[in-house]
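[Meeting: bench + compute handoff]

Bench side (C.D.) handed over the final construct sequence. Compute side (W.E.) agreed to return the predicted structure before the next meeting so the bench team could plan truncations. Sequence as handed over:
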Amino acid sequence: MTPVIEARGLRKRFGKTTALDGLDLVAERGQVFAVLGPNGAGKTTFVRAVATLLGPDSGSLQVCGYDVRKHPGRVRQLIGLAGQFAAVEPVMTGRENVFMVARLYGMSRRRASEATASVLTTLGLMDAADRPVKTYSGGMRRRLDLGASLVGAPQLLLLDEPTTGLDPGSRSQLWDAIRQLVTRGTDVLMTTQYLDEAERLADRIAIIDHGVAIASGTPSELKATAGGNVIEIGVREREDLASVAEILGRIGSEEPRLDPNTNRATVTVAPGEDGIAAAVQAVSLAGVAIDDIGLRRPTLDEVFFMLTGTTTGPTPEDEPANPPAHAGARRASEAR
């Protein structure tokens, strides 16, 4: 089956800055595919290239079997795009916002009304459909933005950091909405700064850094690359972290990681070893007061740090400003 996205040797420069440096990435159909990476890694540039909002300098990029250079109009008809910030008009109602985008997709007034009602119902916004968007919460605006991206029934939905700035409840609601879309047959490509979001939603994940893919696989496969299990110790007094770090340094297969903010120390042990008994005995002999100690599998955050040397955070990439989120719809209309 033809992949929904296939990039080979994709390159893009902005002046002296290389955003994509020979990126190879394949996303199969019927799944949520997440792209992770440090700020400035090229995630947003890649999404914009898939959306035909910018052209790659070299390499090949196909969406649903169509070359983005040779058939950009066809690609635009197959995709929906929600950028990093909700692109909705606050003085219009929710219904009017979605209806406007449906018309930009070329729908008749009747078909646009039907599609608008369907999308608003799916995203749980019908009760607020006729209220001005300026009265919506941040989570409601984000769901409305997602709805506007869906009104054209896209085969592929592009989500660029969809939950940045949302509270936990709003994030959970948006996750539920995305899962419903996938069960109804929409493929999803998403970028995110939240590792828990990628782990909950994504079937497969690609990690990119400096414009190239450095790892890919399911969340479980990626976590397996971190090696063995992780010993984690929480101490009662911060000054005891140094002693615990020395103990874990003798047990682990790498330098221990310390978090003074939470009084915790972690270390990865060699595959096939647990080390927990030795850690408990050594900490007890050292007279360190501990709050908890445990053995667990590596987290996706730890894999990300191991591969990139950085942590993630909900900060937009240092890349050229994003175009309006629904520019794809307008271009699809122009292509007709």
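W.E. noted at the follow-up: The first strand starts at residue 5 and ends at 14. C.D. will use this when planning the next construct.
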